[in-house]
C-alpha cells in the first residue's frame, strides 16, 4: 500500500461544533490478493482501511477511511491506483498538520455462511506524514 497524495486543511466541522478542526485527505494505491480467504463457508469479505495516530489530546486515534465488500465469486485480486478515501478524515482538533506518523492498516471481517465472525488485520502497514502547512486550495 502506498499513499499518493496527502493534504491537510483547517476547516469548521459544523457537525460537531463551529471550531476549526483538521481535515485530512489522501489518495492511496492498494494491491493485494485475497482469493485464498474464500472457501465453502465464506459468504463475503468486508474490507476496511483505518488510519491510526497519536495526538497530545488522545493517546489513540483510529479513523475508518475506506471500505469495500467482496462477495464470493467476485474478483478478490485487488489492484487499485490513486483511490480516494470514502469517509472524512476529521481530527478532533489540530492534530493532523505536520503529524509525521499516521499508520494505515487494511483489515477485514470474514462473513461466513455459518459460525463465528473473525476480524483479521492484514500483515503489513503503511505510514505517512501530513504536510506542515495547510492546503488552501480545493482537493
Automatic annotation (TrEMBL):
The keyword Zinc-finger does not apply. InterPro entries: SPC3. The keyword Coiled coil does not apply. It is a single-pass type II membrane protein. Belongs to the SPCS3 family. Essential component of the signal peptidase complex (SPC) which catalyzes the cleavage of N-terminal signal sequences from nascent proteins as they are translocated into the lumen of the endoplasmic reticulum. Essential for the SPC catalytic activity, possibly by stabilizing and positioning the active center of the complex close to the lumenal surface. This is Signal peptidase complex subunit 3.
